[in-house]
């Protein structure tokens, strides 16, 4: 059967969460993902506890799979100044390798059909979608959700504005084994970027950093860049030098864009990084992906059940809710990341935060949003 209620393009956190949520309503769901599960992704792998009530409602408890409880936060600057704070609501550490795989298993259990392929074309005619894949399969649906990540050839096809602009950032991730508190997430600033550190379910330490690609290109390889740039931060040097890599090679991703994107393009409801990215310095991209899936699923269910009168009203409501939920958060993330990228300014900001310790929890709340509840 090639006819579905909803087709989801992309099987990361946003796509899988949508699939599980919609399948609970007994809708006929197809999820198309180009890669096999499980697999590692370049990701900070810290999630705010604000998503836990919603995940539990979907039937997923990350702590059943060994996720680490995180309650403390530390920030250091390139000149080795630091500040610590308790996280207002806390969070958990879980690898994308494990989390995506377990959500995938739950989606299958709920009756979601998962097809491994790449989408090459999406057409919208007569109030219905036709989705074509690399293997020349054609599927039809009433709704399509775009959850295919940061950038894709589909963005070029849809003529999305952000894809035409240069994306100067590079992400690097590695898992290591060594000593690191399992209840803490840290962010370490260095010249041109910052690195997040936290433990995940198998006691590995996730090291994930983002940097300006132009600055990175001045060095001959990742090892040289780390030695000459990252390790100017003594905390980062200590972590890297006193741990053992669990990956044969680091994972990298280039052309990361934080440009503004539209939540709806060509009648496709966009979710997760496909709809917009928060700077990793603010540490809650995974939570945003899950929250955007909840917004999309709830409105799509209302539309398919006749509670929303037209597709136009659905798209307008999703756009409005998306901007209300994430607009301020994204702006705050952009501003905070910009300020901490200024090497001369970051130490001064830390002095302010030391003098007014109540500010740090407030900044965290500003970039993490409100706790999620099931509808």
List the topology elements:
Elements: E1 3-9, H1 13-23, E2 29-33, E3 46-48, H2 52-58, E4 68-76, E5 82-93, H3 96-109, E6 113-116, E7 119-125, E8 128-133, E9 138-146, H4 153-157, E10 169-178, E11 184-190, E12 193-199, E13 205-212, H5 213-216, H6 222-228, H7 234-241, E14 243-245, E15 251-256, E16 264-265, E17 268-270, H8 285-304, H9 311-341, H10 346-355, H11 359-368
Parallel strand pairs: 1-2, 1-9, 2-6, 4-11, 9-17
Antiparallel strand pairs: 3-5, 4-5, 7-8, 8-9, 10-13, 10-14, 10-15, 11-12, 12-13, 16-17
Helix pairs in contact: 1-3, 1-8, 8-9
Describe, in plain words, how this protein is organized in 3D:
With 375 residues, this protein is of the alpha/beta class. Helix content is 34%, strand content 29%. The chain has one domain: 3-Layer(bba) Sandwich (FAD/NAD(P)-binding domain), CATH 3.50.50.60. It has helices spanning 13-23, 52-58, 96-109, 153-157, 213-216, 222-228, 234-241, 285-304, 311-341, 346-355, 359-368; strands at residues 3-9, 29-33, 46-48, 68-76, 82-93, 113-116, 119-125, 128-133, 138-146, 169-178, 184-190, 193-199, 205-212, 243-245, 251-256, 264-265, 268-270. The strands form two sheets. Strands 3, 4, 5, 10, 11, 12, 13, 14 and 15 form a nine-stranded mixed beta sheet that branches. Strands 1, 2, 6, 7, 8, 9, 16 and 17 form an eight-stranded mixed beta sheet that branches. A hairpin with a 5-residue loop joins strand 12 and strand 13 (205-212). Helix 1 (13-23) packs parallel to helix 8 and helix 8 packs antiparallel against helix 9 (311-341). The longest helix is centred in the last third of the chain and has 31 residues, at 311-341. The chain is globular and about 60 Å long. The protein starts with a strand and ends in a 7-residue tail after the last helix.
């Amino acid at each position: 059967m090639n006819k579905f209620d909803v087709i989801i393009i992309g099987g990361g956190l946003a796509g899988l969460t949508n699939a599980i949520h919609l399948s609970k309503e007994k809708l006929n769901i197809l999820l198309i993902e180009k890669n096999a599960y499980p697999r590692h992704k370049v990701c900070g792998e810290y999630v705010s506890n604000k998503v836990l009530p919603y995940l539990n409602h979907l039937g997923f408890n990350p702590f059943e799979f060994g996720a680490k409880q995180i309650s403390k936060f530390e920030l250091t600057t390139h000149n080795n100044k630091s500040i610590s704070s308790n996280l207002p609501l806390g969070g958990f550490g879980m690898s994308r390798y494990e989390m995506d795989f377990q959500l995938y298993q739950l989606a299958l259990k709920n009756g979601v059909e998962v097809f491994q392929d790449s989408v090459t074309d999406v057409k919208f005619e007569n109030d219905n979608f036709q989705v074509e894949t690399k293997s020349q399969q054609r599927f039809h649906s009433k709704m399509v959700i775009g959850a295919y990540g940061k950038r894709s050839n589909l963005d070029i096809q849809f003529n999305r504005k952000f894809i035409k602009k240069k994306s100067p950032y590079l992400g690097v991730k590695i898992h290591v084994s060594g000593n690191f508190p399992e209840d803490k997430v840290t962010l370490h600033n260095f010249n041109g970027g910052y690195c997040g550190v936290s433990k995940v379910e198998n006691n590995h330490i996730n090291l994930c950093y983002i940097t300006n690609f132009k600055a990175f290109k001045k060095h001959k390889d990742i090892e040289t860049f780390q030695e000459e740039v990252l390790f100017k931060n003594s905390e980062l040097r200590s972590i890297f030098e006193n741990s053992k890599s669990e990956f044969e090679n680091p994972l990298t991703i280039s052309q990361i864009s934080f440009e503004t994107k539209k939540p709806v393009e060509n009648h496709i409801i966009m979710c997760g990084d496909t709809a917009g990215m928060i700077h990793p310095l603010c540490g809650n991209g995974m939570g945003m992906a899950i929250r955007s899936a909840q917004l999309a699923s709830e409105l799509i269910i209302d539309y398919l059940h006749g509670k929303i009168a037209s597709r136009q009203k659905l798209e307008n409501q999703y756009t409005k809710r998306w901007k209300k939920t994430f607009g301020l958060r994204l702006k705050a993330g952009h501003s905070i990341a910009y300020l901490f990228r200024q090497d001369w300014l970051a130490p001064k900001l830390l002095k302010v935060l030391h003098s007014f310790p109540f500010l740090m929890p407030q900044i965290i709340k500003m970039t993490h949003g409100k706790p999620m509840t099931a509808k």
